[in-house]
Amino acid sequence: MDASVKLAQAGEKFGYMRFWIAEHHDLPGIASSVPEVMLGYIGAQTTQIRIGSGALLLPHYKPYKVAEIFNMLATLFPGRIDIGLGRAPGGSAEVTNALNDNFLQKVYAYPELVEELVRFVNNEDDKLRAAPIPETPPMPWILGTSKKSALLAAKNGLAYAFGQFMSDADGPAIIQAYRDAFQSGPTGQQPQVLLTVSAICAETAAKAEEIATSSLIWKLQTANGGGEYVPSIEEAKSYVLEEKDKEKLEKMKRGMIIGEPNHVVRKLEQLQEQYHADEIMILTITHSHADKIHSYKLIAEEMNRR
């Protein structure tokens, strides 16, 4: 938890605009089962960086309660709160059953849940107010990797975050469909696209590749039913790979940006142009917290030089 605070503080110092926390359950070493609590903790120890959920898994909750929580956060930290929304279960089947007695039905009702939440956040409900009502409401985002999620965001006049790092879909076409279908609501929100990219940066390409080994092996272990924690570089290097694992690793690497600062920023610029994204959010998974912060620092410094 303290590592998350230090990362948010570092991001603020380096000039990053947003810091989001995902919702996962029953994952050792990941303090994100209750992102709204972590956001309060982080918000109290930062001053200007926007903070939010990426994503809060709405099918598990009642929209009214979510609106109350994020309205409180927006009251405590004015103009800094985002509500990123998703529909994934956030864990195993056992986790889903422990959290929710009718998850699938709630997933089917997700579009209605989104509409209800937006109504409460914008204080537009005829009967209920999700108090406290902040001066600046929290900003809702739809997070996704499909045309379905993009069109849901467009229909509701919401900003859209596309998870490029976890999708094999035609992202540029999905984002264009979002822009084409966008319906501006009463708040006057314009189409806004955030692209989430996995990147690891170091002074040299070789060093970045070495650091990335931990993340890659962890993803492989997770896909194979293990991966309780991100292994050290030494542990990752000693991991015995089968032939099918090597193919998976190469595919994973193609979905990441790994390299020295000029290479990483150049790739980010190419993605921004390809996707016509308004913002890029960087996900960096490393064993060493120092390596993670240093990666963000190098990218920010290179961006500032351009």
From TrEMBL:
Its EC number is 1.-.-.-. One of its GO terms (molecular function) is oxidoreductase activity. Signal peptide: none annotated. Keywords: Oxidoreductase. To bacterial alkanal monooxygenase alpha and beta chains. It comes from the Bacteria. Transmembrane segments: none annotated. This is LLM class flavin-dependent oxidoreductase. It comes from Tigheibacillus jepli. The keyword Oxidoreductase applies. Residues 5-274 form the Luciferase-like domain. SUPFAM superfamilies: Bacterial luciferase-like.
